[in-house]
Specification:
The protein has eight helices and 13 strands. The protein is globular, with a radius of gyration of 23 Å.
């Protein structure tokens, strides 16, 4: 779209899918190159332009895409100065919200199942109906956890449960809806803060996954992961390469950021290109690293049995803690400028 100033404007041509702004009076608009800004469409002009409000600034904009009045959108400033260019950046904005939640001290997903169990243990403080739904939710999440043997069907079930619906009335409703309904009905003194923060993180992940990046930028998705018997949880990031290999094979990178009950913090990155696979484990302590290194031959044997050409797999000590590593991976995947984590309670 094209932003054209506060009240009067100078006609400027713009590339498809971008916006360019110039104040006819020569005033500097409050946009800087590379900045992500949140704007709201607050109205329409008789000439068919939209009124875009960013902070306390309202500008007229000629949009090349349909933008609903009342809708809020993320924009990336492609060029700053008196004639800034803006482009829709919903994927980056959604990823930035995930990073913001990490920086706000939100607990990791590892605490979701223990928090639900603690709520269930409150006994008579909850109504029978609420206890029944809470118990069903806890059992459903526990059943979706990965065990000793790979269970991709459980993973697919968990991912599908993150889809949203309008009404949640049963245990089969999407996970986000179940958590939202549960939080709305919990007594104020029940202590559901950990559940609320986990719900916020899962919602941010789901919203980020729904957005598409601009053309010619790699795709990425961020998902949760749970393990059976409450033995761990975390997140994993799936990325696709911007271009295929000379042989026409697409390349995918899977990065796992897990908190395990026995191994502690574990980071694992695996690259798959065609039938070729390689990976690296990063752990927080030497004992866990030595143990996992002994298991690498069995892992490589199993992968070979699945038909992969197995490349190098390694184990090393992690250079940074789990949460900063996950934040950096999301920023890199989304093309965000690095930010510092403040007041993080791991």
């Amino acid at each position: 779209m094209k932003i054209t100033g506060f009240s009067s404007f100078k006609e400027i041509r713009s590339a498809t899918g971008t916006a360019r702004c110039q104040d006819a009076a020569g005033r500097q608009l409050p946009f800087a190159a590379g900045e992500l800004v949140r704007g709201k469409i607050t109205g329409l002009t008789p000439g068919g332009k939209v009124l875009l409000t960013i902070g306390e600034t309202t500008v007229e904009a000629r949009s090349e895409v349909a933008l609903k009045v009342g809708g809020e959108f993320w924009f990336e400033v492609r060029q700053g100065g008196a004639e800034p260019w803006l482009a829709l950046a919903e994927k980056k904005g959604a990823a930035q919200e995930v990073v913001r939640l990490m920086a706000s001290g939100s607990p990791s997903l590892t605490r979701l199942l223990p928090a639900l169990a603690a709520l269930l243990a409150q006994g008579e403080a909850l109504t029978p109906e609420l206890r029944a739904r809470l118990d069903a939710l806890l059992q459903s999440l526990t059943a979706s956890g990965q065990g000793k043997e790979p269970a991709p069907e459980k993973l697919l079930l968990l991912l599908s449960s993150l889809r949203s619906s309008r009404v949640a009335t049963s245990a089969e409703a999407p996970l986000l809806d179940q958590l939202a309904k549960l939080l709305a009905e919990l007594p104020a003194e029940s202590g559901g803060e950990a559940v609320a923060r986990s719900h916020a993180m899962l919602s941010a992940m789901a919203h980020c996954n729904q957005q598409m990046p601009p053309q010619h930028q790699p795709l990425f998705w961020l998902f949760p992961c749970f393990f059976a018997m409450g033995e761990g949880a975390g997140s994993w990031l799936l990325q696709t390469a911007a271009e295929e290999s000379p042989q026409g094979e697409a390349s995918h990178t899977l990065s796992f950021f897990l908190e395990m009950s026995r191994l502690g913090e574990l980071q694992f990155q695996m690259t798959v290109q065609g039938e070729q696979v390689a990976g690296a484990f990063y752990l927080a302590n030497e004992a866990a690293m030595d143990h996992l290194r002994q298991e690498l031959p069995e892992l490589k044997e199993r992968l070979a049995g699945l038909g992969y050409r197995v490349g190098a797999f390694s184990c090393a000590l992690a250079r940074e803690r789990l949460l900063p590593a996950l934040k950096s991976a999301v920023e890199q995947a989304a093309g965000l400028a690095p930010t510092r984590l403040l007041d993080v309670k791991a």
